[in-house]
Specification:
2 domains, 18 helices, about 25% strand, binds adenosine monophosphate, 5-stranded parallel beta sheet, GMP Synthetase, Chain A, domain 3, Rossmann fold, binds coenzyme A, 32 strands
Length: about 625
């Protein structure tokens, strides 16, 4: 079927379309109604179907002849180790881990917070939760204690799973002090904290709460898969919104499994048995979908890489992994390629490896900027495909559907809407815009399977944030346009979310942290363009009583404050002290104008500006 036919079928008759895709999975009981609405008026897919995501990812393959095939390759240059698991071995590890969680009271519907580095136990414990019908919430290792605490309070887990440390290139990051301080800060205390001691750091254990992972595992019996409903939550993944409180995106078992399976063939053009590598982190949505669930549900071999694109040990790291493990498709963030390009512009290191196995490169997390695209496409001679998605959807909204009908690439475009996503460009009043007119990107309801159906514990926030701006549509928070050929161009966020090295961060949250400093009267944080990371946060700070204050000292303190409260991943390293912030007469800070000014882009001083001299003053400081 051509892309056009497939896409039209998904829009004209979504129920039939997705019912057909769902038949590729081994349900315990198929849903009686493919699409329904719940008590809040929200669309739900496969709500009363019964399945278990871990069964689909592991047991099904073991029972159907893939027991001896590799399921997982753990490749860790930072510890100089590799470990391989067949589907049978991984199933057994996961079943035992599920038994361990069961021994600590975890049952269907209970939450488990996972704060682990990129080690097999991260993937194993996610699948173990899925096996029990428990809901995991993975927290990225680069977040500081307050961020972990907020998530503990919101998800209220019974158990927290962690390790003694993570490793950042050659730096050992001890996790236990972070975990201890987060638990102390949080109102909700998990009953048990199960900790894996890694040889690189030994954690002090707290009697009565902390349990040694290996001992707990040795004492456990394997646990079986627990059937859950299609609409039961599989996981909560917190993502940045415009305020300090992250949003707990809820992913449901049924729709998620269907979308994962479909995407592996239709987007990534991967067959069961092939090796697929998403070079991301399990703490992000890309890691959830395409390190763990997508490849395993599809019967592939997935790669879990504990390293960086550069410095572990060099800019040839990705090519070494691809060639050594026979990777067919690589998926990572453009920032990783920019880092490689900077270190090895002529790709000399790549030439040392046989990359004949590599058939496609996929990029997401931020726009694949044309210079990086051109470099990649010329250097590696395989299709380089940008695709656009969000934590909220769990899979691509727009892509080059390589497994369906590869389309010519247009540099700077993420190509066309993925079947199921009825994408429109709207103006401020909700009027649909035509080709080449830039506006707000919205998706007409119903969204396809896998997209969020609520924010954990707060359906009203979900409606308010995503469904109320344009009734009948989901607002994505991104702006962009379709060209005359129907190619979609994503031009960036239209809210206070920024993208730093493919990591989604909230400038609003950084402003809240900066504003806590006793000397700060007010502040604005914007994302300025950065050659390597895409964007970097930059603060503009007005001090309360500038007399006697030492701006450099205060800026240093602000940098430390953001690092302490949000984490190193925020990469907040730059702020300038200004006399006043540019505002409209109604008091709105002109962040967009500031951003254009810092980036050296053209900008028009809004007629509503309160005091144009405020902009001139800042311009003189830059
Ligand atoms: N645990 C603890 N700290 C972490 C961390 C983790 N899991 N991940 C990142 N950090 C820290 C880093 O050590 C760094 O700390 P520093 O300020 O003390 O140096 C900080 O957070 C920022 O990290 P990062 O954004 O990774 O920048 P970097 O300068 O260390 O590396 C790249 C730059 C381009 C190599 C790196 O960002 C990268 O590999 N990006 C790929 C992005 C990606 O996978 N995105 C996922 C979405 S697809
Ligand atoms: P996250 O939820 O962390 O995956 O971040 C989602 C946001 O990243 C989107 O809303 C976009 O702003 C941005 N993004 C992700 N992929 C792309 C892409 N291919 N092109 C442009 N922006 C992207």
């Amino acid at each position: 079927m051509s892309y056009k036919e497939e896409y039209q079928a998904s829009i004209d008759n979504p129920e039939e379309f997705w019912a057909d895709k769902a038949r590729q999975l081994d349900w315990y009981k198929p849903a009686s109604r493919v699409l329904s609405t719940d008590e809040h008026g929200i669309y739900r897919w496969f709500a009363d179907g019964e399945l278990n995501t871990c069964h689909l990812a592991l047991d099904y393959h073991v029972d159907n002849g893939r027991g001896d095939q590799l399921a997982l390759i753990y490749d860790s240059p930072v510890t100089a180790t590799q470990q391989k698991f067949t589907y049978l071995e991984l199933r057994d590890e996961v079943a035992r881990c599920a038994g361990m969680l069961k021994n600590y009271g975890v049952e269907k519907g209970d939450r488990v917070v996972i704060y682990l580095p990129m080690i097999p136990q991260a993937l194993i414990s996610m699948l173990a939760c899925a096996r029990l019908g428990a809901v995991h919430s993975v927290v990225f290792g680069g977040f500081a204690p307050p961020e972990l605490a907020v998530r503990l309070d919101d998800a209220t887990p019974k158990v927290l799973l962690t390790a003694s440390c993570g490793i950042e290139i050659n730096r050992v990051i001890e996790y236990k002090p972070i975990v201890d301080s987060a638990i102390e800060m949080a109102q909700h205390k998990p009953d048990t904290c199960i900790l894996l001691q890694r040889p690189q750091a030994r954690a002090e254990m707290m009697d009565g709460r902390d349990v040694d992972w290996q001992q707990a595992l040795d004492a456990a019996e394997p646990a079986e898969c627990v059937p859950v409903k299609g609409s039961d939550p599989l996981y909560i993944l917190y993502t940045s919104g415009t305020t300090g409180k992250p949003k707990g995106v809820v992913r449901e078992n049924g729709g998620h499994a269907v979308a994962m399976k479909y995407s592996m063939s239709a987007i990534y053009d991967i067959e069961p048995g092939e090796v697929y590598w998403a070079a991301s982190d399990v703490g992000w949505v890309v890691g959830h979908s395409y390190i763990v669930y997508g490849p395993l549900i599809h019967g592939c071999t997935t790669v879990l890489y504990e390293g960086k694109p550069i410095m572990t040990p060099d800019a040839g790291a990705f090519w070494r992994v691809i060639s050594e493990h026979g990777v067919k498709a690589l998926f990572t963030a453009p920032t990783a390629f920019r880092a490689i390009k900077k270190e090895d512009p002529e790709a000399k290191l790549a030439k040392q490896y046989d990359l004949s196995c590599l058939k496609t490169i996929f990029a997401a997390g931020e726009r694949l900027d044309p210079p990086t695209y051109e470099w990649l496409a010329q250097t590696y001679q395989v299709p380089v495909l940008d695709h656009w998605w969000q934590t909220e959807t769990g899979w691509a909204i727009a892509a080059n559907m390589h497994g369906l009908e590869p389309m010519p690439v247009k540099s700077g475009s993420s190509t066309v809407p993925v079947p199921g996503f009825n994408v429109e460009i709207l103006d401020e009043e909700g009027k649909q815009l035509g080709p080449n007119e830039q506006g707000f990107i919205a998706v007409k309801l119903p969204l396809p399977p896998s997209c969020l159906t609520t924010i954990w514990g707060d359906v009203e926030r979900f409606k308010e944030n995503y469904l109320q701006t344009y009734p009948g549509y989901f607002t994505t928070g991104d702006g962009g346009y379709f060209d005359e050929d129907g190619y979609l161009f994503i031009m960036g966020r239209v809210d206070d979310v920024i993208n730093v090295a493919g990591h989604r961060l909230s400038t609003g949250e950084m402003e809240e942290v900066v504003g806590k400093h006793p000397m700060v009267a007010e502040c604005a944080v914007i994302g300025r363009s950065d050659e390597l990371k895409g964007q970097m946060p930059m603060g503009f700070v007005v001090l309360k009583n500038a007399e006697g204050a030492q701006p450099e000292t205060i800026v240093d303190e602000l940098v430390q404050l953001v690092r302490k409260d949000i984490g190193a991943v925020a990469a907040f390293k730059e702020a300038i002290v200004v006399g006043r912030l540019p505002k409209t007469r109604s008091g709105k800070i002109l962040r967009k104008t500031l951003r254009a000014m810092v980036d050296g882009d053209e900008y028009v001083v809004p007629s509503t500006i309160e005091d144009p001299a405020a902009l001139d003053e800042i311009k003189a400081l830059l």
